[in-house]
Specification:
The chain is an alpha+beta fold. Helices cover about 30% and strands about 10% of the residues.
């Protein structure tokens, strides 16, 4: 069985990135290229993660289904 967990608490505000605890084997999903996301990940201090940066903002249902079917992304298991 595979499990996808979404945080129960969403932290925001000044220093929220640095003060939040991140789980091991986290999946980071973003719309920005690695050159930019690497800066945020460094600020977060997150370790042991998988990055998925191929998100398209506001995708159509068809694009979402096609992306899912073509995905080679590893499903995280906890």
């Amino acid at each position: 069985m595979h499990t996808l967990r979404i945080p129960k608490i969403i932290n925001f505000g000044e220093n929220a990135l640095a003060e939040t605890e991140y789980p091991k084997n986290a999946l980071v999903v973003t719309t920005v290229p690695p050159a930019l996301s690497d800066k945020w990940l460094a600020k977060m201090g997150i370790q042991d993660y998988m990055l998925y940066d191929q998100v398209k903002p506001e995708p159509s249902i068809e694009m979402s289904i096609r992306s899912f079917l073509n995905s080679k992304t590893k499903i995280l298991q906890s």
